[in-house]
Every structure is written in C-alpha cells, then in structure tokens.
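Chapter review. Work through the record for Acetyl-CoA:oxalate CoA-transferase before attempting the end-of-chapter questions.
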Amino acid sequence: MSTHASPDPGSAGPLAGIRILEVGTMLAGPYATMMLADLGAEVTKLEPAGGDISRQVGDSYFASLNRGKRSIRLDPGSVEGRARLGELVANSHALLVNLKPSAIHRLGLTYASLREFNPAIVCVAITGFGLYGGDDPAFDYIVQAATGVAALTGDPAGPPTLPGYSSADNSTGLTAALGLLAQIVSGRGGQVDVCLRDVMLSQLNYHAAAYLNDGRRPQRRPFGAHSYYVPAQLFPTADGYLALFVTHDRFWKAFAAEAGVTGFDTMAERVSRRAEVLAVVTAALARDDARGWEVRLRPLGIPAAAVRTLPEALDATPEVVAEAGAYRLVASPIRIDGYTPEYGPPPQLGEHDSQEPVPQ
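Structure tokens for Acetyl-CoA:oxalate CoA-transferase:
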C-alpha cells in the first residue's frame, strides 16, 4: 500500500488519498483528525453503538470537532468487529485512538496488535500520561492543574485559574496530528505515543528551562505579565483592557513617544525596574480607552490589542467562519495556495456502515 497521495494539483487537499481511522471521544482525538480531514484526508470515526459520547453534549459541539468525517459503528471487542477492523486497517494509513491505556490494550488498538493486517499502519495513542502510564483520570482541566498551568494563571493575590477553553486537549490534538503525519512520511508504520501531560509540560518550555537550568521558579504575575519582557501584559485603560507586548527597544521607543513616557531606554533597565515601568505605563494608558490605544499604537508597529470577547472577535473576522452543512464553524487555520477546503457536515451515527473499504 502506498503511503503517499497523488492529489490533483490545485483542487485536492494535500492529504488527499490518506485514510485515517479514529476511535476517539470528546475533544483531543476528534480535533486531531478533523484538522487532517480539513486538509483532504478521509477520516472515518469508528463509534460504539451509542456513538461518541460528545454526540450527547450537543449538535454544535459535535460538529465543531467532527465535520467532514465518515462514521461506522464498530465494536473492536467482538469477533465481527475485530474482523471488520482488520479490513479497515488493511486499507488505511493510520489509526488514532483517544481512550484510556487499559482500553487501548484490551481492544487491541496498538501497532503490535494491528501490524498483522497492515505492517505500514501508523497507530497513534492519545492518553493522559502515556500508553503505559496508567488509567488515572486525565481530563483537560486535571492536566492543566497537574502540570503547573493553573498555578501560573490568574492574579497572584487570588486563586489559581484555568484558561477558559480546553488548551490541553487542543494542544495535544495538534501534537498527535503532527506525530501521525511524521510517521506516515517515514513509511515505516509503528506506534506513536502522545499524552496530555507531556504536551503541556513541553508548552511550558522557557519556564521549564529556567527552572531546570537556573533553579528559577516561575511566578504568577498580575495581569498575566511576561517573565522576560517588560512591559508585556494586560493594562487597565480609561475604558477596557489593553494587551501591550514590548519585546525590544524599538517598540519601547515608539510607544514612549506616543504615550509621553520618558526613560527606561533598554530592555535590561525595564526588567530590573519592572514595578516603576508598570506604574508609568499604567498611568499613561489611563488617558485613553483600550480601542483608542489600539488605533494609535498599531500603525506604529507596536503589538497592542484591546481585549475583546469571542463574539466580538468573530464578528470582526467573518472570513474565518465557514459553513459545514447546516453548521457555521471556525475554518481551518491552515491556508494552502491552490486549495480551499470543502467542509462537509458531521456524519450521522453509522452513516457509512454499509460502505466497503476501497483497496489502495
């Protein structure tokens, strides 16, 4: 079986001809495979008789993670289901699984168990703590708490805070999709092991490096202030909050001129005199509202944005909204010259039960 697609340039997606099976629930696994489906891969959800549990959360929730996929009801624990799984694996490039490790092993959803059907199959396991790391509960918020993300978030005078979206699940989904494609490109087949804990620790990269190499413990700072850059955080204004991110002296010089601030000319000085800098900047920003500062600073090349709600952000960027059947969803963030995704609706449960796999 060939591991590389031959798409029609300018029309088919870059992953046209790639077939991916998914045994996934809720978010991380389905999000990973949806990103691949958006790029032209054929993704088939293998669902239990009652369907992926996320179907029970709500139609729009399910659609946001499963547009453009196929659905086959299959019980890999039954004799018939195992035979059907073998047929599908024989004609697929990858299987992505998002279950507890014990279930993955018990159902034989690993490369060691499936290589007999297709030695080139890529098997990706998304778990909380690794394919051999046990079955401790590992939902997104649990992992954020366990890896230091929550401890770094929120006001230092208040309790730790969780981000308002599923950052661990989404990040792990993207990482799993990368690992899946890397192993397909290698042409070797094999097992890929991606877990939420390791992904989130990896994303704390410079915080972790500072502790591991310099013994520097990360601090939770007011308004989400950056550890290395000053000023780089949220600031209150006359009306609303402004995100200002000054990463080098040229940005500071332009900001200082516009805001009527003097001194603190080097990054080193701004870092060493953090409290003074923040007091001066806060006082200056109080003279206009957040939207006003955004309008004033952006033409100068200074990174600044007024804090908006999600509805405000979506209303301001209608180009990122796509139609997938009856649903309006955020489109793929990946833009490729010559290719425009056609977003299909999410599949009905078992919609493709009767379709036979087409040999490669």
